[in-house]
Amino acid sequence: MRRTVDWADGAVVIIDQVALPGAYRTLELRTVDELVDAIQRLAVRGAPALGAAGALGVALAAFAGGSDGAVRAEAERLATARPTAVNLRWGVTRALGKLGGGPEAVLTEALAMLDEDEHLNRTASGHAADVVLRETTRRPLRLLSHCNAGHLATVAWGTALGVVWHLHERGLVESVLVDETRPLLQGSRLTAWELAQAGVPYRVQPDSAAALAMSRGLVDCVLVGADRIAANGDVANKIGTYGLAIAAAHHGVPFVVVAPESTVDASIASGADIEIEERRPSELTEFGGVRIAPEDAEAFNPAFDVTPAALVTAVVTENGVRTPQPMS
Ligand SMILES: CSC[C@@H](O)[C@@H](O)C(=O)COP(=O)(O)O
C-alpha cells in the first residue's frame, strides 16, 4: 500500500480515509485550508499520520511565499486543527524549526519525518509483539483491536495493528475481534479493510460486545494505539478505550498500548490535563445522513477518553516498554 501521507508535485497527497472501504483513492491538497479541512473531516487521521500531515502542511505554507509571521500563523492553524493527538503539534513544530532555511529546508525535514515513521512503528510494534507473547499463553492468539491504529493511522505499517502484522508473519494470529468504533466506524471501515488486505481472519463487533467477548474467554490480549500519553502513563485514545481497559482489567486480559515516542507529552503530568476533542452532534444524531435521534436531541460526542496508567499492562514505544515518570 502507498504511504498514507506523502508529497508530490507541490501537494500533500493523502489516502482519502473517508472514502474507504468503498473506494481506495487519493486526494491532492495544495493549500493549508484544504489540509485543515481534510484533518477535521478525518480524511487523514490517526496520531502519527496527523504529525506527518502537519509537517507537510508547514511546507505548503512556506512555499506559498508569505512572511515568516504568515507561515507561523498558518502553522498554528494546522497545529490546532484537532486538539488531542499531540503528534500534530509535534510534527508542525519540528518542521517549523527549519523555517530559517527556507521552504526547501522545511520540506526536507518533513520528508525525513515521513521516512522515519515506518521504521519507528515497525520497531515499536516489534517490541510490543514480544510483550504480547510474554503476557499470554494461548497460541495462536485471539486479539482485540479498537479504532484504527494501522497503516492508515501512520505514514506506513501502523502501531497496534503493526503488532498483528508481526505476529501474523509468524503464524501466531488466530483472529482479531474488531471493535466497530462508534460513531465514525474507524474499526469496521478501516481496520477491517486493512486486515482483509493482509489476509488476517477477523470479525467486526459492536464496541459494546467487547466485555462479553472477554467474559467468554475469547480475547487473549487487547491492542490499542494512543493520541497522547501523559508523563504518568495515562493514555488518551479513541472514545471507548477506557471502558475496554476496565473490562480487560476485570477479566485479567492484558491491555497493551503501542505508540511512537512522539505521542508522549512529557509536559503533561496526568491524563486530566489532556484536552479531549468534542465533535459535532450530528455524528450521533444522524446515521449515513439519515436523522436517527429526535430533531431536538442534544448530544455528548467526545472523540477520545483517557485510560488511567493503572489499567495499562504496558505502553510500548520504539524504545521498548515505557516506565511512567510522574512529575513531582
Ligand atoms: C496509531 S493511531 C492511534 C490513535 O490515533 C487512534 O487509535 C485514534 O484514536 C485515532 O482517532 P481518529 O479520531 O480516528 O484520528
Q: Can you tell me the CATH topology of the largest domain?
A: Rossmann fold
Major β-sheet annotation: 7 strands, mixed
End-to-end gap: 45 Å
Q: Please, how many domains?
A: 2
Task: Report the uncertain regions.
Answer: none
Bound ligands, named by name, code or SMILES: 5-S-methyl-1-O-phosphono-5-thio-D-ribulose
State the helical fraction. Answer: 25-40%
The assigned structural class equals alpha/beta
The run of helices and strands is: EEEHHHHHEHEHEHEEEHEEHEEEEE
In CATH terms, the superfamily of the largest domain is: Translation initiation factor eif-2b, domain 2
Question: How many strand units?
Answer: 16
What best-fitting shape do the alpha-carbon axes yield?
Answer: globular
The CATH class of the largest domain turns out to be: Alpha Beta
Strand numbers in spatial order across the main sheet: 6-5-4-7-10-15-16
| Count of discrete alpha- or pi-helical segments spanning 4 or more residues | 10
Strand content: 15-25%
CATH architecture annotation name of the largest domain:
3-Layer(aba) Sandwich
GO molecular function, one term: S-methyl-5-thioribose-1-phosphate isomerase activity
Function: Catalyzes the interconversion of methylthioribose-1-phosphate (MTR-1-P) into methylthioribulose-1-phosphate (MTRu-1-P).
Keywords: Amino-acid biosynthesis, Isomerase, Methionine biosynthesis
InterPro entries: IF-2B-related, IF-M1Pi, IF_2B-like_C, Initiation_fac_2B_a/b/d, M1Pi_N, NagB/RpiA_transferase-like
